[in-house]
Design brief:
heterodimer, A: 421 residues, alpha/beta, eleven-stranded mixed β-sheet, two-stranded antiparallel ribbon, globular, B: 82 residues, mainly alpha, Non-ribosomal Peptide Synthetase Peptidyl Carrier Protein, Chain A
C-alpha cells in the first residue's frame, strides 16, 4: 500500500464531445474523419467576429435530470457524464463502497477545467443586473468554482481519497491525469477518476479569445476551419465537452479482473517561462517537458509509435511542438504517427487533455491512429509523419507507446505517456 | 385576494417540483423540506424567493430557519401574505 513506484493502468474511458455523447461514438467519428465544428445559430453570435464552434453532440440536459442539472454549471455536467461513463466502463456497478470492489477511502477524483464555470458567472451577473439581488441563484458559487467538476465527481462516485483540480489553461486536463497517475504511483490511492472539462461557448469568451487573434475566423467554412499543420491554418476553433479515464494500480485492476486498455507510464512537465500566451518558438520549453518525461519514465523514442499532438491550428504553436519532438527524439520521429484530433473536435481547452487521452488510449488499444483532417497542403516546416486521410494502423505487436501532448497559455507543458498492453 | 391554504399548498408543491423534482402529490403539509423533499439549505433559498414572488409575501432570512415542514411554510404565508 505504501509502495512508492506502483504500476498504473487505464481501465475505463468516458467522453462527451462535439463528435458524440460517449467515448465509442467519439472514437468512431475520429476514425471517420468527421468534423464537429458548425456555424453558431444563436442570436448572440450574429455580430461576433468568430461565429463557429464545436458544440457538444448530445446536450447534457437530455441525460442529467433537471433538478440536478440546474445546480451544475455546464462544464460540471459534461464532467459528470464522462466520469460516470468511464466508471461504468471500468466495470464498477455502483458508487465506491456500495460496489465492494473499490474502497471509497482509496478512490480519488481529479478533474480539471481551464476556465471553470464561466457561463454561470456571466449568466448570474445578467440576472443580477436585469432581475435584482433576490433572483441571483444561491447555487452560483458552488457552480462557478473551478473545482466544482472534481467535487461533483467525488460526491457522485464516493471518492474520499482526495478531489483535485489542477489549473493550467489548455494543459489542465492532461495535468489532472498526470496528477492522478502520481496519486496511484505513490500509494495515495488505488483508483482515480481523472479528466478535463470545459464549457465556454458563450459570447464573452468567444470575443475575448477572438480579440487575442487566437481563433480562426473562417466563418464561411466551419468544418474546414480547424486545420492543424496545414499551411493555411489561422487559429483554433473553440470546442466544448469532457473526457475522463479510470486509472488504477495494476495490482488493484488484476485483483478484480478488470480489462486494461493501456499502462499509464507517466508524465513530463515543464514551463516555458517565456510569454503569457505565445509558445516558446524554438520548441525548447516543450522539449524540456519531453526530456522530463524520458527521465521520469525511461522510455525511448524508438518505442513511441503515436503522438496525439496538442496542435491547435495556430501558426506558431503547431511548429514549436514538432521542433521539440525532433529536438528530443531526432530521427525516431519519422516512425511516429502524429494525429491532431483538434482538427475534428475543435479545441476543448481544459477538456482537451481529457478527450485526447481517451483518444490516445483507444489508439493503443485498437492499434489505430486517427487521421488529421483539413490538411490540403502540409506545412513543409511540420517535419513529421502527420496521419491524413484514412486511420493509420500502428504496429500490431509489442508494447508500443503513445504520447498525449497538452500545452496551455502561461507556458504550461504537459506530456503524458501510455503503453499498449 | 389572499390565497387559501389549499392554494398555497398547491403553489408550494409546484415550486418544490420545479426546484427539487419531487412529484407535486408528494408535497404534503407534514413533509420536511430537508429530510423528505431533497431541498437543502441552498435550494430552500430558491423555494423562499419563488414563494415570495408567487404569494406577495416577504420571508426574512431569520424566519426561513423556522420553516422546517411544508405546513410551517403554508402557515407562515397564510399569516403574512399581502
Amino acid at each position: 500500500m505504501n509502495s512508492t513506484n506502483r504500476t498504473v493502468v487505464v481501465t475505463g474511458v468516458g467522453a462527451t464531445t462535439p463528435l458524440g455523447g460517449d467515448a465509442s461514438t467519439t472514437w468512431e467519428a475520429l476514425l471517420a474523419g468527421r468534423s464537429g465544428v458548425n456555424l453558431l445559430e444563436e442570436e448572440w453570435s450574429a455580430e461576433l467576429p468568430v461565429r463557429i464552434a464545436a458544440k457538444i453532440a448530445v446536450e447534457p440536459g437530455t441525460i442529467i435530470p433537471r433538478p440536478q442539472a440546474r445546480k451544475l454549471d455546464r462544464s460540471a455536467q459534461f464532467a459528470l457524464i464522462a466520469a460516470r461513463e468511464a466508471w461504468a466502463d471500468a466495470g464498477f456497478t455502483a458508487r465506491a463502497g456500495e460496489d465492494p470492489s473499490v474502497d471509497p477511502d482509496r478512490l480519488g477524483a481529479v478533474v480539471a477545467s481551464g476556465i471553470g464555470g464561466v457561463t454561470t458567472l456571466l449568466d448570474q451577473y445578467d440576472v443580477l443586473r436585469e432581475k435584482g439581488v433576490r433572483k441571483v441563484s444561491p447555487h452560483t458559487v458552488p457552480m462557478l468554482m473551478p473545482n466544482s467538476p472534481a467535487a461533483n465527481v467525488s460526491i457522485d462516485l464516493g471518492a474520499r481519497a482526495g478531489a483535485h483540480t489542477p489549473v493550467s489553461a489548455c494543459a489542465s486536463g492532461a495535468e489532472a491525469i498526470g496528477y492522478a497517475i502520481e496519486m496511484i504511483r505513490t500509494g495515495r490511492a488505488d483508483v482515480v477518476v481523472a479528466g478535463g472539462t470545459e464549457a465556454s461557448i458563450h459570447p464573452l469568451p468567444m470575443v475575448a479569445f477572438g480579440n487575442m487573434m487566437a481563433m480562426s475566423k473562417n466563418n464561411d467554412d466551419p468544418q474546414g476551419a480547424s486545420r492543424p499543420f496545414d499551411v493555411d491554418r489561422n487559429g483554433f476553433v473553440m470546442g466544448e465537452g469532457s473526457g475522463a479515464i479510470v486509472l488504477e494500480s495494476a495490482e488493484h485492476a488484476a485483483a478484480r479482473g478488470a480489462r486494461v486498455y493501456a499502462q499509464a507510464i507517466g508524465q513530463g512537465i515543464s514551463a516555458d517561462a517565456h510569454h503569457i500566451t505565445q509558445p516558446e518558438p524554438s520548441g525548447n520549453g516543450i522539449g524540456n517537458a519531453l526530456q522530463n518525461l524520458v527521465e521520469n519514465t525511461g522510455i525511448s523514442g524508438t518505442e513511441i509509435a503515436h503522438v496525439n499532438a496538442h496542435a491547435t491550428s495556430t501558426p506558431q504553436g503547431d511548429l514549436a511542438e514538432i521542433k521539440a519532438l525532433r529536438k528530443v527524439f531526432g530521427n525516431d520521429v519519422d516512425h511516429m504517427a502524429v494525429s491532431a484530433t483538434k482538427s475534428m473536435t475543435g479545441h476543448l481547452l481544459g477538456g482537451a487533455g481529457g478527450v485526447e487521452t481517451v483518444a490516445s488510449v483507444l489508439a493503443l488499444y485498437h492499434r489505430l491512429a486517427p487521421p488529421t483532417i483539413n490538411i490540403g497542403s502540409l506545412d513543409p516546416e511540420a517535419d513529421a509523419d502527420v496521419v491524413t486521410g484514412e486511420p493509420r494502423a500502428l504496429p500490431a505487436e509489442g508494447p508500443i507507446v503513445a504520447l498525449n501532448d497538452s500545452f496551455g497559455f502561461g507556458g504550461h507543458n504537459v506530456v503524458l505517456a501510455f503503453r499498449a498492453v | 385576494m389572499a390565497a387559501t391554504q389549499e392554494e398555497i399548498l398547491e403553489g408550494l408543491a409546484e415550486i418544490v417540483n420545479e426546484i427539487a423534482g419531487i412529484p407535486t402529490e408528494d408535497v404534503l403539509l407534514d413533509k420536511s423540506f430537508t429530510d423528505d423533499l431533497d431541498v437543502d439549505s441552498l435550494s430552500m433559498v430558491e423555494v423562499v424567493v419563488a414563494a415570495e414572488e408567487r404569494f406577495d409575501v416577504k420571508i426574512p432570512d431569520d424566519d426561513v430557519k423556522n420553516l422546517k415542514t411544508v405546513g410551517d411554510a403554508v402557515d407562515y404565508i397564510l399569516k403574512h401574505q399581502g
